[in-house]
Amino acid sequence: xxxxxxxxxxIGAKPPIWREIKVNNNITFGTLHEIIQEVxxxxxxxxxxxxxxxxxxxxxxxxxxxxxxxxxxSNEDKVKIKYILKRKGSRIxxxxxxxxxWEHEIKVTAVFKDKKLDYPICLKGKRACPPEDCGGVWGxxxxxxxxxxxxxxxxxxxxxxxxxxxxxxxxxxxxxxxILKRY
Length: 183
Hints:
Blueprint: E1 2-10, E2 18-24, H1 29-40, E3 48-52, E4 57-60, E5 73-75, E6 91-96, E7 102-113, E8 121-126, H2 136-148, H3 155-162, H4 173-180
Parallel strand pairs: 4-5
Antiparallel strand pairs: 1-2, 1-7, 2-8, 3-4, 3-6, 6-7
Helix pairs in contact: 2-3
């Protein structure tokens, strides 16, 4: 089986937030969406889309919520990633939460054969996923500044909202790979 090594990076995040994973190239974009939700740490509570505006590609979950009639939108549960991400260097954008607009770049960094890979695996990553509904990369940057400054007027409210144990640097590779075994 062919395996893709993918680097998934949150566009505009400073410092960078990213994951590097291996997946079977025969999976659908619907499955890739579920994997991205796990590896990035999202809660899968918002709409999403895979898109490449230069190639006029738009891949979404096609259900009653979207009511998709547009011929340019493909059903993510029917399109395999190998048909769009064809080779090393191929890229696509993944947008999660159209309100906060969390944009991720997905890039194929390697393609190889691996008969032993039964499920996705995360090789490495950096930093914790931002909390849902914090306002996108700009809102997250503001949130980090607020929680770092005990004198900020919103410091206590933000700490209460995000939780005292939130660590923006934390990334638990071992725990994530245990979760990924269910795929």
